[in-house]
Write a structure and sequence with these properties.
9 helices; alpha/beta; single chain; 18% strand; binds zinc ion; three-stranded antiparallel β-sheet; 2 domains
Length: 323
């Protein structure tokens, strides 16, 4: 055996292995899509390229003595967050779309009732489904849920899903919580960079923490968020959100317990879509035994769902009339 050839061939193999390692280690082209297969080709020149094309696992040219050696290795690439499949939209195509976001989920339980162990993530999912069912029954709107099972979504994914679906209204469902069990009643939040009061600021701090739970660095939002903040000068979206919040208060008051100052404002990450009216509905205090029992009952969920349905119907009837 020619020693020099062996060294050269070994080096070539090492390069192929290195190229494969690069893929395995996650140095993937950012453009790689959900169902893309990335292929690496290692050639005699020692150069390799990663490309978004389908290929076959093919080591047949390994060990060939002459001619250009080409190695192909194909690995399914995990989808980037942005390419997550969109949730199902239900309802008549001609109708406006309401996206309901069940707060928290997966590794993030949200607030927990200290005595019963009732978790916010379970309550919000049941409430979101109840709202979906009632809205679909009314036939006036289409509906999609950001999640319909116990999964974790970062906050930007939540409104991101709604934006990709071109939603006309975004409603994020949550339950409030405080140390003492006394606080009671629902409230609704719309976006403002300045919180309307101290409690609103505390709530925003707590809800915005949802991303930290899975180790997502909020700082990486960078340019994305700053451009969104600039877009927020779009008064129309903020006015439409506030208008819907007032309507929800009007329609909900006869049906369920509300806080006296129902509509409040805070810098809530999940409401930061610049072009889609968005509210965060704190449906009651999971820390309060009476509220918790209401939130965890069929009657309670139905009252919340009917409140939202009435407000949604008036909201879109007004928008149609204004055209
Ligand atoms: Zn929450």
């Amino acid at each position: 055996m020619d020693f020099r050839w062996t060294v050269a061939q070994t080096a070539r193999h090492a390069r192929a292995v290195f190229a494969a390692s690069v893929l395995f280690l996650g140095f993937l082209p950012p453009s790689a899509g959900a169902d893309t297969i990335a292929a690496v080709e290692a050639s005699d020149t020692g150069q390799f390229a990663a490309a978004g094309v389908a290929g076959q696992l093919d080591f047949s040219s390994f060990g060939r003595r002459s001619g250009p050696s080409r190695y192909k290795l194909s690995i399914p690439v995990p989808p980037p967050a942005r390419a997550r499949p969109l949730p199902r939209v239900q309802g008549d195509d001609s109708r406006p779309l309401v996206v309901i976001d069940a707060g928290h989920g997966g590794v993030d339980p949200g607030a927990i009732n200290a005595e019963s162990g009732l978790r916010e993530k379970d309550v919000t999912l049941k409430v979101a489904k109840a709202i979906r069912d009632v809205l679909l029954e009314s036939g006036r709107v289409r509906v999609a849920l950001t999640r319909d099972d116990d999964r974790y979504l970062i906050l930007r994914e939540r409104y991101g899903i709604a934006r990709r679906l071109k939603a006309d209204l975004f409603i994020s469902i949550h339950c409030d919580s405080v140390g003492s069990g006394d606080a009671t009643g629902a409230s609704v939040y719309t976006l403002s960079e300045v919180a309307s009061d101290k409690e609103a600021a505390r709530l925003a701090a707590r809800e915005n923490k949802a991303d930290v739970i899975s180790g997502v660095d909020l700082g990486d939002a960078g340019a994305d968020v700053s451009s969104i903040l600039i877009d927020l000068t779009q008064r129309e979206t903020m006015n439409a959100s506030a208008g819907f919040a007032r309507l929800l208060g009007r329609e909900a008051r006869p049906l369920m317990p509300l806080k006296p100052n129902f509509h409040r404002m805070a810098s809530l990450m999940v409401l930061k879509a610049p072009d889609m009216p968005s509210i965060l509905f704190e449906t009651g205090y999971i820390s309060n035994p009476v509220d918790a029992a209401f939130l965890d009952s069929r009657d309670g969920r139905d009252a919340i769902a009917q409140s939202v349905r009435r407000a949604v119907e008036v909201h879109f009837a007004r928008r149609m009339a204004a055209r």
